[in-house]
Design brief:
- By secondary structure, the chain is mainly α.
- The chain has one domain.
- It is 66% helix and 0% strand.
- Helix 2 runs antiparallel to helix 3.
Length: 77
């Protein structure tokens, strides 16, 4: 594992803006879908089958977006 200076303020400016936008979008999708999936699994809320499918698809889509657009310092080598 190589050392990467995460305090470099110019790092994010070297990436395309759209990559940062999609990464933020992925996290904004991940947080509520994770909470909803956890609440439904724990029995605190009741979802219909359609709602469960939407939550699961949103959760999986957010993980794909986050994995695809993650910064270089977070990638496995």
């Amino acid at each position: 594992m190589k050392f990467v200076n995460t305090l470099n303020r110019n790092y994010m400016s070297k990436r395309p803006i759209i990559a940062n936008v999609f990464l933020i979008l992925g996290f904004l999708l991940w947080i509520p879908s994770f909470i909803l999936a956890l609440a439904a699994w724990g029995g605190w809320i009741t979802l219909t089958l359609t709602q469960e499918i939407i939550v699961c698809v949103t959760f999986i889509l957010s993980l794909i977006i986050i994995n695809f657009f993650k910064p270089d310092w977070a990638k496995d080598e």
